[in-house]
Amino acid sequence: VEILVLRETAAGERRVAATPETCRKMSAAGARVGLQQDAGARAFLPDAAYVEAVIVDDAALADAAATADVVLCVQPPAAGVLQRLKPGAIVIGLLAPHADPERAALYVSRSLTAFPLERLPRTTRAQAMDVLSSQAGMAGYKAALIAAERAPRFFPMLTTAAGTIRPSKVLVIGAGVAGLQAIATARRLGAQVEGFDVRPETREQIESLGARFLDLGVSAAGEGGYARELSAEERAEQQRRLAEHLKGVDAVICTAAVPGRPAPRIVSRAMVEGMRPGSLIVDLAAETGGNCEATRPGETVEIGGVSVIGPLGLASSGALHASEMYARNVWNFLALMLGEGALRADFDDELIARTAFSHQGQQRG
Ligand code: NAD
């Protein structure tokens, strides 16, 4: 079995889909691993650290692609690489097929078995393969650090000869994987933290991190443990209570998302205008449109002394550990199919069947 690990080409992407550790595991399972030259360099994993892998230089990439049984990546591979793959080759990564119809068509027309890992069902068995969770954890952590770093105040309470400093009040909106990590991180920095989510079960999770659950009187548990979109009345009620509350908050970290939908708009421009100068918003949902109306992806907007920060690629900014976790997730998924030097995708396994986007020339969803 030949496995090819690609070097990422997307702007700002620093992660890599395999580490020296996972290459060792793939090789122990009987695979031959080719690593595109410098694939790990931007995650501080030099080629020399990949003892088990053969380094594929750029001149040899086309040939390596033509013989690969499995291609591992973070972002979707370039069309030129996909066009070289043999029919039946497996592609594993954050492939976002619906974001690019042309590339999606290639997976089907080239008879590739594409596994966009974002489609992985979020069952207990899939946890060790869940790249959305592992990458969201890094993003939430970094979001809290950005808030602390950009704030014109301390996060912790301080008692000093120059008097007492009160702790910052931090509100985390959305308490999924990223939000809970943001809460835990802001707490470690000593802030007074509140969390808010529409899924009622998050109350206990927020409180177990030593934060307070902010009750805005809206509950919207949806299917499969996710949130559903709010009705117009629910939204209005949430908005009214939140606007009042935000007047006393120093930093807001937004992480709310609804699968397959644009990010819910939760913080309006008027709410930002009502906040105190020197407070700030870090909108982790910037990539999917933002939870705050004023957010501009990749930029910081100032409104009446309030900074609205829309960071992009936060998981990538922690590339070393983000790659370590991503690579282990990928390995755990690949291990479902790889054994004793042979590769077999069992479509009776729901993790395989539900994750696959294309197989044997058919699109599956
Ligand atoms: P996500 O990124 O889709 O959403 C982030 C959070 O935003 C969610 O908690 C959601 O409830 C919240 N949200 C949505 N609309 C909102 C609104 N209008 N106001 C406030 N908050 C809003 O979610 P995620 O972090 O990927 O995962 C969500 C949950 O799924 C997890 O917390 C967990 O319970 C479950 N999950 C289970 C597994 C597993 O068992 N394998 C793995 C990962 C996640």
TrEMBL record:
The keyword Cell inner membrane does not apply. One of its GO terms (biological process) is NADPH regeneration. GO terms for cellular component: plasma membrane. It comes from the Bacteria. GO terms for molecular function: NADP binding; oxidoreductase activity; proton-translocating NAD(P)+ transhydrogenase activity. Residues 4-139 form the Alanine dehydrogenase/pyridine nucleotide transhydrogenase N-terminal domain. PANTHER family: NAD(P) TRANSHYDROGENASE, PROTON-TRANSLOCATING NAD(P)(+) TRANSHYDROGENASE. The transhydrogenation between NADH and NADP is coupled to respiration and ATP hydrolysis and functions as a proton pump across the membrane. This is proton-translocating NAD(P)(+) transhydrogenase.
